[in-house]
Amino acid sequence: MTAKEIITYFENWAPPGAAWERDNPGLQVGSTACEVNKIFLCLDLTEKALDTAIANNCNFIFTHHPLIFYPVYKLDTLNNPKAKLIQKVIKHDITVYSAHTNLDFTKNGVSYELAKVLNLKNIRFLKNLDDTLNKLTVFVPESSLEKVSEAIFSAGGGIIGEYKKCSYRLSGTGTFEGSEYANPAVGEKEKFETVPEIRLEVLVSNWNLGKAVSAMIKAHPYEEPAFDIYPLKNQNPDFGMGAIGELEKPVTENEFLEHVCTSLKTENIRFAKGKRGKIKKVAVCGGSCSDLLNEAISQKADAFVTADVKYHTFQDGENKILFIDAGHYETEIFSLNVVKEKLEEFLKQRKSNIKILKYKGVGNPVKFYNKKGENQIA
Ligand SMILES: [Zn+2]
Q1: Distance 307 CA to ligand 1 centre (A)
Q2: Which of 205, 251, 261, 283 has a Cα-to-Cα distance from 141 of 20 to 30 A?
Q3: CA angle 224, 230, 231 (to 5 degrees)
């Protein structure tokens, strides 16, 4: 099985087009045409992680954080550790693929998984994505309606939450008069024609729009299909940032802090106190999501769990919400379990015996030193 087949399946769930515009998800190094013998999953491709992948004969590496995030102008393999790492990847004929903010923004992705690990119920997005939807409207003779609508659906159009093939169809009358050079599928050229047509409306995300329009034009019988694309202000029900849900039973602030430590398997978390009330509604976002603090407060969450929180941002949240920085690594590492499940689902479907290895080595560079002398540098 090629890397491309695996990637195509994965991207159906977490399309790179949904990622933050300055992100760099997708193929990092290597070739999607490579025949995969074993898959290696890790949050970051460190040298140790790469050595483990090599030792285990894995030639397809999936990372969450892109191996190449900032533009690379030269590969100085002597002075630049990243360049050295890339060289090693190529030397061992390995393909590296990353799913970053597309995995963050997808349903059941990074933040949904964090919410599940914290035992939240009724999980939904904290903030759905804006400006990602379009209405594609095309006017089509009834005899071609099914062909054209199926073409748009197959290109990813017409998905709303748990429903697919969603469309609206309205009968009307189309008119046209072809020039002497026209070749009309219906009627004659240089003659004013009146044709019964259906106005077909389908919702299409930005990342499927090009594909959907091409497929629609290909399936349409007319030489010049008439269609409109309307950018929508609707929020995307299927993609968003962070997640929010409720605990089964309200707990005290201290109990919740303990719960976060236990669930995320960490000894140390940073926090600012909340309103000193019970914690029931909880907002989360894996990784650096301080920007969502106001969203969490406005949705009346009692606690917000994220990472990389700055001093002044803690001040902004203090006494409004129990604001927890549980660590970048700790809030994201569990998402590899979902990626593993997703890939295993595909491999099972295809009756493939390709194995997936999740990196278990030390992935978190952040340590906490304390007076007891724990975490002393060996
Ligand atoms: Zn991250």
Answers
A1: 9
A2: 205
A3: 140
Separation of 328 CA from ligand 1 center, angstroms?
6
Q: Which residues surround ligand 1, an ion (CB under 5 A)?
A: 287, 332
**Per-position DSSP letters for 204-256, written without gaps between them:** EEHHHHHHHHHHHHHH--SSS--EEEEE--SPPTTBEEEEEEEEEEEE-HHHH
In-domain check, residue 369 = no
Q: What is the Å distance from ligand 1's center to 63 Cα?
A: 11
Mean of pLDDT values over 5-33 = 96
**What is the number of helices (H) and of strands (E) in the chain?**
12, 15
Contact (CB, 8 A) for 221 and 141: yes
CA of 363 to the centre of ligand 1 (A): 12
pLDDT in tens, 112-132: 999 999 999 999 999 999 999
Do residues 254 and 118 both lie within one domain? yes
329: nearest Cα among 145, 110, 132, 148: 110
- Overall average pLDDT of the 85-97 stretch: 98
Dist. CA 235 → ligand 1 center (Å):
24
**Distance in Å, CA 287 to ligand 1 centroid:** 4
What is the residue range of 160's domain? Answer: 133-231
Mean pLDDT of 286-292: 97
In order, the DSSP letters of 299-343 are: TT-SEEEEE---HHHHHHHTTTSEEEE--HHHHHTTHHHHHHHHH
The pTM of this model reads 0.91
Task: For residues 116 and 246, state if they share a domain.
Answer: yes
For ligand 1, the distance from its centroid to the CA atom of residue 377, given in whole angstroms, is 25
Quote the ligand 1 centre to 332 CA distance (angstroms).
6
- Helices assigned H by DSSP within the chain: 3-13, 47-55, 81-91, 101-105, 110-117, 145-154, 206-219, 253-263, 293-298, 311-317, 328-332, 335-349
Number of domains observed in the structure of the chain:
3
**Same-domain check for residues 224 and 259:** no
Distance 64 CA to ligand 1 centre (A): 7
